[in-house]
Structures are given as structure tokens and as C-alpha cells.
Amino acid sequence: MATWYCTREHVKTALDYKETSRSDWQIDRAIEAVSRDVESLCHRTFAPVQATRYFDWPNAQRARSWRLWLNQHDVISLDSLTSGGVTIPAADYFLEPVNDGPPYNRIEVDLASAAAWSGGDTHQQSIVATGLWGYSNDETAVGALGEALDASETAVDVDAATSAAVGVGSVLRVGEERMTVVGRAQLDTGQTLAVDLAVQMSAATVAVQDGAQFAVGEVLLIDGERMLIVDIAGNNLVVKRGWDGSVLAAHTAGAAVYTPRTLTVQRAALGTTATAHLTATALHRWDPPGPVRDLTEALAMNSVLQKSSGYARTTGSGEGERESSGRGIRDLRTQVYNSHGRKARTRAV
Predict the structure, then answer these.
(1) Which residue ranges have biased composition labelled Basic and acidic residues (predicted)?
(2) Which pLDDT tens digit goes with each residue over 37-92?
(3) CA atoms within 13 A on the CB side of 79
(4) Domain ranges of the chain
(5) Which one, of 333, 347, 157, lies nearest residue 261 by Cα?
(6) Which residues pair with 86 in a beta bridge?
(7) CA-CA distance, 216 to 95, in Å (whole number)?
(8) Most buried one in 15, 117, 238, 278, CB count within 10 A?
(9) Rounded distance, CA 222 to CA 267, Å?
(10) What is the distance between the alpha carbons of residues 166 and 187, in angstroms, rounded to a whole number?
(11) What is d(CA 290, CA 296) in angstroms, rounded to the nearest whole number?
(12) Residue 138 has pLDDT above 70, yes or no
């Protein structure tokens, strides 16, 4: 699965879509398509990828003899750098622009050192750089593993904080390994409804045995009804009833409480290696740049709505009816290109 720049849950919440396999399939396809569209618009990818890149030297860039332009290969950090088979120590080169990066768009040899770019038997692929490539490595600590993992497991139990903070499409880091969330399933929390719950929206307090085992933003499943936790007071969960298109219903004390804390993940994502992890190992979520996430979400929403209308969305009625033009999306595309698009280099004559 390629990296998405928003999650399925972001789009479904914005659209107020009912939880069905049909809508999931439509939304997933839309997010995948528009994520690639955003990359095409900006002429770069954004997720951090552990990889080795190869560059010719001399190359056709007409750059200064100490400078290597990386073009579309933004770099966040380097682990090793060789030129013509000779290692260049980290102290002998600079990642630039030093005051603005990462990401860095060029590598410059320190002119005060003895290092220099050089070719091998030929100029082809004579520079080899290994490191973390991409636009950003901004992360948020979101919780911890709820179980130990071996190197092959793809069903991962997580804690309440993680369940509330991630969705399908999120990229998680555990130790040095990254994982992409590709699905979610309900997990029995081991707790039950402490008192009856009436079939009315105003009955918004769910009493449980231990409120500390839940998190604001987490979604409960009791019988067939989903509920969004908006606040927690002691052992009482304050919720929005009938969440995610589920049907409001009465529930009796003793009903089991489930939450979507089992994540189906793609292991060893973004160039990392699958390894074993201990219970309670911290989890970190990679966060795409805010404008990029917003544009991806807006384009995905528009794609889903256009498909549902047969690409015939209009505004107004009668003589005032007009085809829906999506001016807001056009403005957002321009904003994202201006702030995060890779521009052509220019130089004065």
C-alpha cells in the first residue's frame, strides 16, 4: 500500500458516511488516487523512506564542483555517503539549505576538508547515499502496543490512546520499524456497561468499571450501536450516540464494550525492516504537512461525491443552476503548490 496523506476516518467523519464495506471501498480508492494526484501536483513525495539513492558524477546539472543537487529526492538525514567508492565522513559535507531544512535539496562538500566528489570506473552511479528520504519526519506520540509482536504478525492490538489517534492510512513507527494501517477490527475491552442505557440521544453517559482504560476520540461498540467518546469523567464516558451511521438502541447493564483496537498493518513499510517488539512499546504516528493533508481530504471527499452523482453535481436551481466548480478546492491546490510544491531552479545571467 502506497502512503496516503489522510485517513479513511477523516473522510468518513467529514462526509458523515455510514460504516459499510461499500463506502470503505469507495473512500479508499479515492484517497489512493488523490494522494498520487497531490504528489504529481507538488512534484515530490512526503513520507519518510529509508533507502539508498544513486547519482552520477560528473552529472549534467552544471552545478558547482562541490555541489550535488538531489532534484526530486528530498533528504531528511543521511547515514552514509560514498563517492567513487570512497566514504565521505559526515563532518566533511553539508546538507543544504541548512537554515531551512529538512528537507534538504542538495549536498555540498565542505571546502575546508580534503573530501571531494569523484567518479568510479565510469561516471554512472558513482555517488551512493543512504539515509532517510522524503519531505518531513514529523511525528506524534500516540500510545503503545497492547501486546508483544514477532516479526511476522500483521494483526496488532494497541491501547486506547492509539485507537483514538489513528485510522486506516496512518503510518506508525515502532522502534525503527514503520507500519501502515490497512484495516481495523473490534477488540473486547474486558469491560461492560455498568448501568442500563436508554434509547434516546440525551442518554449520553456510559458508565463503565474503569474510565481510565478509554480515551477521548475513541469509538465504542455496544451491541450494534457505535458511540464517540467526547469526554471522560471518572468512570463515566460522555458520548455521542448513534455514531458513524449506526442505529440508536437501548442497552442493558452487563453488555460488552468493544473498541477498534486491533489494527491490520503492513509490516516493514517505507524501507524499514520487520522486527519483534515488546508489549507497551511506544507508538509514533507520522504526520503529513497540514495543507497536504487538508487538500487530500478535500479531493477525496469531492471524488466520492462526484461519483455518487454521476459526475453531475450542480448548485442552485432553475435558471440559477450551475455546475459545481469546486473553487475552494482550486484555491487549496494553489495554496499547497505554493507552500509545498517543488519549483524549478533559476539563476541570474
Answers:
(1) 319-333
(2) 999 999 999 999 999 999 999 887 777 889 999 989 999 999 999 999 999 999 99
(3) 9
(4) 49-133, 139-286
(5) 157
(6) 83
(7) 41
(8) 117
(9) 31
(10) 15
(11) 10
(12) yes
- Cell numbers that stand for 100 in this block: 531551512
Closest among 167, 159, 216, 161 to 189, alpha carbons compared: 159
Is 259 in a helix, a strand, or coil? strand
Q: Which amino acid is at 234?
A: G
In this prediction the pTM is 0.88
What is each CA distance from 49 to 28, 136, 183, 288, 308, in whole angstroms?
Answer: 22, 10, 22, 13, 35
pLDDT value of residue 201:
93
Q: Closest Cα partner for 138 from 6, 4, 3, 289? A: 289
Alpha helix ranges (H) inside the chain: 8-15, 21-42, 160-165, 290-308, 327-340
One-letter amino acid of 39: E
Q: What is the dihedral of CA 218, 222, 227, 230, to 10 degrees?
A: -50
Strand order from edge to edge, sheet including 49-55? 49-55, 127-133, 75-83, 86-87
Write out the three cell numbers for 153: 504478525
Q: How many angstroms separate the CA atoms of 62 and 68, rounded?
A: 10
How many C-beta atoms lie closer than 10 Å to residue 25's C-beta?
10
User: Cα–Cα distance between 190 and 181 in angstroms, integer?
Assistant: 24
**Which grid cell is 292?**
497536504
Cell 528537507 -> residue: 103
Nearest-10 Cα torsion for 135, 137, 139, 143: 130
Residue 309 pLDDT class (50, 70, 90 cuts): low
What would the grid cell of residue 25 be? Answer: 471501498
**Short-list 331, 295, 341, CA closest to 103:** 341
Residue pair 171/180 in contact by the 8 Å Cβ criterion: yes
- According to DSSP, the residues that pair with 207 across neighbouring strands are 236
Q: pLDDT tens digit string along 139-196?
A: 999 999 999 999 999 999 999 999 999 999 999 999 999 999 999 999 999 999 999 9
pLDDT tens by residue, 114-136: 999 988 888 899 999 999 999 99
Count CA atoms within 13 Å of residue 188 on its CB side: 5
